[in-house]
Amino acid sequence: MQSHTVEIDAGTEPATLRFAARFNVAVPFIDRHLAEGRGAKIAIHTRERDVSYAELAADVNRAARALARLGLRAGDRVLMVVKDCPAFFHVFFGAIKAGFVPVPLNTLLRSSSYRYMIEDSGAAALIYSPEFASEVEPALRESGPALRHALGTEGDGGFAALQAREAADFEAVPARAEDDCFWLYSSGSTGQPKAAVHRHRDMVVTSQRYGVETLGLGEDDICYSEAKLFFAYGLGNNMTFPLWIGGTAVLNEERPGPASSFPLIARFRPTAYFGVPTLYAAYLQEFAHGKPDLSSIRRCVSAGEALPAEILRRWHVETGLWILDGIGSTEALHIFIANRPGDVTPGASGRLVAGYRARILDEAGREVADGESGRLVISGESTARCYWRNPERTATTMVGAWLDTGDTYRRDAQGRYYYCGRSDDMLKVGGIWCSPFEIESKLVEHPAVLEAAVVGRADADELVKPEAFIVLKSGQAGDDALASDLLRLCREGLAPYKYPRWINFVGELPKTATGKIQRFLLRQPQSTPVSVDSPKTAQSR
Ligand code: 3UK
Questions:
Q1: Which of the residues in the chain have pLDDT under 50?
Q2: Is residue 14 reached through a cis peptide bond, with omega within 30 degrees of 0 on the bond before it?
Q3: Does residue 50 belong to any structural domain of this protein?
Q4: Which CATH number fits the domain that encloses residue 498?
Q5: d(CA 332, ligand 1 centre) in Å
Q6: Which residues contact 515 (CB under 8 A, 6 or more apart)?
Q7: Is residue 393 assigned to a domain?
C-alpha cells in the first residue's frame, strides 16, 4: 500500500478502513486533492476571499516549515487560539505534517483558563488571532519557560509573515495511524478541563463513518457550521468533512447567529448546515420577521445537546427540512448515534453510526434490557487514546475499548437511542459545556454571597440554561441591585455563555449529611426567581 493512504473495503459490514503502515493524516486531507486534480477547486469560502485546494496545500507546507524553523521538537504541542479562518487550517495541518501536535482551544475563554492550559499541556508554542489578545496575552505573561514561542497570526513577526518566507513544498513527517496527532480540551464537572488525545486515524474515521456513510456527503457538498472549528463538532463539520470529500467549507469568523449566518448562507449557498438546538430555536423566532433563503440546504444537523422534538417539528413546517439530531463528544471526536436522511425520530438521538458499538449499563455494570435507562458506553475507532497526564480520569472514562459518555440513555426495540440526562452535574448551554462548579466559584467571590449552587433549568424552548441559588451572608439583602451585580461579576469573569439566567436568593441549600450540595433537589420548579435574562435590567417575573 502506498504511504499515507486509506483503503475502504466496502465488501464488509461495516466497511473496513485500512491505513497504510506509514500514515500522516495531513496527506489524505490536504495533498491528496492535488493528486486527484482538485487544485483549482475552492476548498474554503470566507467573507474576504476564496482559497483553492492548491493554495491551501501550499500554505499548509509553508506553515509546517515555519513551525519547524522555530525549533520545535517532534511531539511538541502547538496551542491555537485561532478564529475560523484559513490560518486555522494552515496551523493545524502544518503542525501535523511536521510532526507537532496542534491543540485548538476554545476562543471564548478567559485568561485564567488559557494560563491553565498552557501549563497543563507543556506546550512549546501558542498561536493566536489578534481578536483574542486581551485574554491570551495576560496568560502569556504568566507562563513558564516551556512555552518558547507565542505568535499572533497577523502583523510584523506574526505567523503569516513567517509563513510567507517559506517554500511551498514539504515532505510529510512519517507517522502511523495509531500515533498521537492532536488534542482537544473538554470540561469536567469539578476541576479543570482535560485534554483528549486523538490519533492520526480518528479524523478519517469520523469523516467517513458519519460524514460520508451516515450523512451521505460528497464532492459537491458545501458545508457550513455554526459551531466553531475549535469544537470537535465544528472541526468535523467545517474542516475534516469537506476536506475528506473534496468539497468546500464556508467559514464565519464572527459570532454565530442569524445576523452573521443568514447573509453567508444566501451568498455561498451551503448544502449541509450544522447547527445547535439554541440556534435552530433562535432562527425560528427570526422567521417571524422574514425568512432567509435556505433553498441550497439539503441536510440540517443538530448536536451538542438534545434537540427538543418541538423545534424539529416547527423547523420542518417552516423549511420543509428535517433536522438530523445526533450525539457526539470530544472524546469520540464526532457523532456516534444519529438520525439520518429518511430515518428521523423526533425526541430520539437516532441509531448507531456504522463502526460504533454501544452498551447501556446499570449501576453494577450489567447491560440493561431495552426500554430501561442506564449509563451509555460506546466504542469505535475514533475515540481518544487517553486524557493527557490524567491517569485517574483516563481509567474511569476509557475502560478497555469502551468510552463512558457520562450520559443516561435508553434504547427501544428498534435500536433507537433516547437521551435521558447526564449522570454528573454538567450542563450543556447552547451546546457548550458549562460546569455548575465554575459558576458557583465565581458567585462566591462576591462579598455578599455565603454559598451558591447552580443547576440547569429548561427555558420556554425546552433548552437548558444555568439557574443560581444563592445564600447571602447575614445582613445582606437579596434584591434586584444585588442580582445585577452578581450577573456583572459572572459576565466579566466567565466565558460569555456561562452566566446564570435566573437568580434565586434562598435561606439555605439542601445538603447531604456530609455537606455535599444536593443539586437534584434544586432542579424542581421553585419559588419565583429573579430573571436576569436581559443583561441590564434585572426584573421580577
Ligand atoms: C451532550 C448531547 C443529547 C452529551 C459533540 C457532536 O457535543 C459534543 O461534544 P462535547 O464534548 O459534549 C458531549 C456531550 O454533550 N450531547 C451532545 N450531543 C447531544 N446530548 N443529544 C445530543 N444530540 O452529554 C455528550 O456526552 O462538547 C457533538 C460532534 C462532536 C462533539 N464533540
A1: 534-541
A2: yes
A3: no
A4: 3.30.300.30
A5: 9
A6: none
A7: no
DSSP state of 366: P
Domain that includes residue 469, residue range? 426-540
What is the number of structural domains in the chain?
1
Q: Which three cell numbers stand for residue 445?
A: 467571590
What distance in angstroms lies between residue 305's CA and the mean position of ligand 1's atoms?
6
- The model's pTM: 0.93
Q: What's the pLDDT tens digit per position in 329-375?
A: 999 999 999 999 999 999 999 999 999 999 999 999 999 999 999 99
**Pairing label, strands 323-328, 335-338:** antiparallel
DSSP 182-236: EEEEE--SSS--EEEEEETTHHHHHIIIIIIIIT---TT-EEEESS-TTSHHHHI
**pLDDT value of position 120:** 98
Residue 525 domain-assigned (yes or no):
yes
- Rounded CA separation 195/119 (Å): 12
Pocket, ligand 1, Cβ cutoff 6 A: 186, 232-233, 303-306, 325-330, 334-335, 349, 405-407, 419, 422, 428, 433
Q: Report the C-alpha gap between 182 and 179 in whole angstroms.
A: 10
- Separation CA 234–CA 236 (nearest Å): 5
Give the count of beta carbons closer than 10 Å to the beta carbon of residue 46: 17
User: Residue 481 domain-assigned?
Assistant: yes
* 8 Å CB contact between 59 and 90: yes
